[in-house]
Amino acid sequence: MTTLQAQAPAVRPRAAARTGLHAVLGANAAVVAVLFAQAGFGSNALILLGRLTGLYAALVLAFQLLLVARLPWFDRRLGMDRLTAWHRVTGISVVWLLVAHVVFITTGYAQLASLPPLDELVHLATTVEGVLRAVVAVVLVLVVGGASARWARRRLAYETWHFIHLYAYLAVVLAFSHQVAAGTTFTSSPLATAYWWALWGAALAAVLVGRVGLPLWRNLRHRLRVAAVVPESDDVVSIHITGRDLDKLPARAGQFFLWRFLERGRWWQANPFSLSAAPDGRSLRLTAKALGAGSASLRSLKPGTRVFAEGPYGAFTALHRTRPNALLIAGGVGVTPVRALLEEIGGHAVVVYRVSERRDAVLLDELRGLARAKGAVLHVVTGATADHAPDAQPLGARALGAAVPDVRERDVFVCGPSRMTDAVLASLRELGVPANQVHAERFTLAR
């Protein structure tokens, strides 16, 4: 008898994608520096710094568009969570670079004209083509950045935050038009002009392809509809979806879609739900708990309702396996991608399912059946968490080490509420599980 084992790829998918993004950013940063030098240096150091910070603000802004373009190759390898986190970090960089650009340029020209900086800014905005558009772009970026701060996100409804965030695209257009009209480096040579047009064209094309073109094409091709609505408990419901040529939809167990159900009063709402069963080429299934108005109303969906789905998204898949055996840890309704992953994954698996009470264990009967069929071990962990007793934590290092003694020899997939996920990741570090064997997805339902 021959035993097949999962082999770690020569180059890990996540490392390849991360290296690729760093290489793209680094190469473009070098090109910008060369073009900046070729444009020549003026006598005013502040204006020189203003030009340089403006160019790098434009580069990072274009890179931000690539991060949120949802291109499948990057998303499958890095995951939307990681790409969004990088987008947030680069967004902070854009804000500071733009502020520095305005301050340096305004102060430099104010020195030459012997005017107060604010008066010089007004003069530039009213007399130099493109500067007023740049001022508006900076204001929009500051508003979007402020709305994206953690303290603001906690207070804003998701729909409000998303609407404000859309103004970032207007800021991009205004910033580029300013660069075309007033950018010294942009017009310094045909090579520089061609480079900036190509950079912005590629960034905007990536967004149009990933966020508009690909979702439209897939939905026209697959024509998704609700096939059945199945209550799993008082507050949990499964939606079965059918369509055409679903065997050609590149979805994997562990991934999620942004779902829109095309009926009156609901079509504009897009909610992220993971697949709760491995795709079989004939149908898709999502399972949702009533955590908000959008998910609570799913129970009233009618079979035959048209569905518009964006995705699949996420790197929480077997693509990132490095070991033949796995440990799957789920918390609450975060069990949905874990249940799908258990169905697909090979090798020996241990499943740890954390819930407050056994009655909260969604899809438990299915998990038991899958565990029996695949020879997996299933642990259902219940009870309250004792914050004051670290050694008694249900998912602490001691408990996990006792339940899975060979945890360091397994891939570990974790999906659940942020607090639980953070605690599990800390336990895995304490147990010495290598970072490349840990795969986490934080389950947070968009409000």
UniProtKB/TrEMBL annotation:
<feature type="transmembrane region" description="Helical">
    <location>
        <begin position="130"/>
        <end position="152"/>
    </location>
</feature>
<keyword id="KW-0411">Iron-sulfur</keyword>
<feature type="transmembrane region" description="Helical">
    <location>
        <begin position="85"/>
        <end position="110"/>
    </location>
</feature>
<dbReference type="InterPro" id="IPR013130">
    <property type="entry name" value="Fe3_Rdtase_TM_dom"/>
</dbReference>
<keyword id="KW-0479">Metal-binding</keyword>
<protein>
    <submittedName>
        <fullName>Ferric reductase domain protein transmembrane component domain</fullName>
    </submittedName>
</protein>
<feature type="transmembrane region" description="Helical">
    <location>
        <begin position="53"/>
        <end position="73"/>
    </location>
</feature>
<dbReference type="Pfam" id="PF00175">
    <property type="entry name" value="NAD_binding_1"/>
</dbReference>
<keyword id="KW-0472">Membrane</keyword>
<feature type="domain" description="FAD-binding FR-type">
    <location>
        <begin position="219"/>
        <end position="319"/>
    </location>
</feature>
<keyword id="KW-0812">Transmembrane</keyword>
<dbReference type="GO" id="GO:0016491">
    <property type="term" value="F:oxidoreductase activity"/>
</dbReference>
<dbReference type="Pfam" id="PF01794">
    <property type="entry name" value="Ferric_reduct"/>
</dbReference>
<dbReference type="InterPro" id="IPR050415">
    <property type="entry name" value="MRET"/>
</dbReference>
<keyword id="KW-0408">Iron</keyword>
<dbReference type="GO" id="GO:0051537">
    <property type="term" value="F:2 iron, 2 sulfur cluster binding"/>
</dbReference>
<keyword id="KW-0285">Flavoprotein</keyword>
<feature type="transmembrane region" description="Helical">
    <location>
        <begin position="194"/>
        <end position="214"/>
    </location>
</feature>
<dbReference type="InterPro" id="IPR017938">
    <property type="entry name" value="Riboflavin_synthase-like_b-brl"/>
</dbReference>
<dbReference type="GO" id="GO:0016020">
    <property type="term" value="C:membrane"/>
</dbReference>
<keyword id="KW-0560">Oxidoreductase</keyword>
<dbReference type="InterPro" id="IPR001433">
    <property type="entry name" value="OxRdtase_FAD/NAD-bd"/>
</dbReference>
<feature type="transmembrane region" description="Helical">
    <location>
        <begin position="21"/>
        <end position="41"/>
    </location>
</feature>
<dbReference type="InterPro" id="IPR039261">
    <property type="entry name" value="FNR_nucleotide-bd"/>
</dbReference>
<keyword id="KW-0001">2Fe-2S</keyword>
<keyword id="KW-0274">FAD</keyword>
<keyword id="KW-1133">Transmembrane helix</keyword>
<dbReference type="GO" id="GO:0046872">
    <property type="term" value="F:metal ion binding"/>
</dbReference>
<dbReference type="GO" id="GO:0050660">
    <property type="term" value="F:flavin adenine dinucleotide binding"/>
</dbReference>
<dbReference type="InterPro" id="IPR017927">
    <property type="entry name" value="FAD-bd_FR_type"/>
</dbReference>
<feature type="transmembrane region" description="Helical">
    <location>
        <begin position="164"/>
        <end position="182"/>
    </location>
</feature>
